[in-house]
Amino acid sequence: MKLLALVSVAAALGNYAVSANPVPKSNNGNNGQGNNGQGNNGHGNNGHSGSTTPVNELYQYSVIAALVDGVASHGTLVKNVMAHGDLGLGTFDSLIGEMVVVDGVVYHAFANKTVTVVDPETIETPFAAVTTFESQIETSAAITNFTGFTASLPTWFGNTSITNHFAAYRLEGTFNLRIRAPGGQCFALESLANVTARQTEWEYTNIEGTMVGFRTPKYAAEVNAAGDHLHFINANRTIAGHVLEVASVGNVDIKLAKITNLHVEVPSEGEFNLAAFV
Predict the structure, then answer these.
(1) Is residue 32 part of a domain?
(2) For the residues 6-21, what does the mean pLDDT come to?
(3) pLDDT of residue 190
(4) What percent helix, strand, coil does the chain show, rounded to 5?
(5) Does 33 fall in a domain?
(6) Is the pLDDT of residue 20 over 50?
(7) Are 225 and 125 in contact (CB under 8 A)?
(8) Are 106 and 118 in contact (CB under 8 A)?
(9) Which one of 46, 129, 216, 261 is least enclosed by Cβ atoms within 10 Å?
């Protein structure tokens, strides 16, 4: 197993309190779902079974700058990432498909429109971001488009600026959306731009499901994609991908959390050492 170089990045923005018309979530210890005996699939024990990371700390393996440069042939086992969270996104070796993490289950969306549940003991990821998600704000609202989603986030956070913060979110409802899944690299270190130029895209209307993702501030653009990064999976767990455009069908349920701690691990050898980061 590869050695990992550990980089700890503390936002050091202190404690915060969020108050707004959207309802701050009361902490009842079980996220309102109780322990229904379903173990660590996220529906019992607050969905945090097995996580070693504090609630709402963002854990990330590798950085987006490396992925852009095509550093994707190998990575770390998915189980190593999942020790740090139950909600998130990423990709897989050689940029084959998209990763969606919901309720502690990792899904692999392929360019052939199939979705599988990942075996975390055997599958690697070159880039992934997860958090042990616990909502601080819960609200319901309509989304007009991706731009409208981005513009509405401060309102949902109670008119509090989150421009310079990371944030995590989970949305449940019915959507019209366009998603993608790349087919993978044709050779080692092929750039992300080249791979996504061949990506497969699909449009869906009135599709019920879950969107998860993160907001990354501009100052961290080399760490993760600046702005809002969303992945979707439908209710039947048969359709999934990276969200390119989205609008809701009526109101959707929105859960939000501001993130002030970031933990990044990067590979200490291999392709990562060859990346130009340009």
Answers:
(1) no
(2) 34
(3) 96
(4) 15, 40, 45
(5) no
(6) no
(7) no
(8) yes
(9) 261
Amino acid at 77: L
Q: Is the dihedral of CA 77, 80, 86, 91 positive or negative?
A: negative
Average pLDDT value for residue range 132-147: 98
Secondary structure element (H or E) that encloses residue 106, with its range: strand 105-109
Q: Given the DSSP bridges, would you call strands 98-102 and 105-109 parallel, antiparallel or unpaired?
A: antiparallel
Q: How many structural domains is the chain composed of?
A: 1
The per-residue pLDDT of the chain, averaged, comes to: 86
The verdict on residue 102 lying in a domain is: yes
Helix (H) or strand (E) holding 99: strand 98-102
Of the candidates 253, 40, 16, the one whose C-alpha atom is nearest the C-alpha of residue 138 is 253
At 148, which CATH number?
A: 3.30.1330.80
- Contact in structure between 152 and 104 (CB atoms under 8 Å): no
| Domain assignment present for 31 | no
Task: Enter the pTM of the model.
Answer: 0.83
Please give the structure tokens belonging to residue 136.
């601080």
- Tell me what pLDDT residue 74 has: 92
Give pLDDT, residue 150: 95
User: Is residue 29 scored above 60 in pLDDT?
Assistant: no
229, exposed or middle or buried, with CB in 10 Å at 0-12, 13-18, 19+?
middle
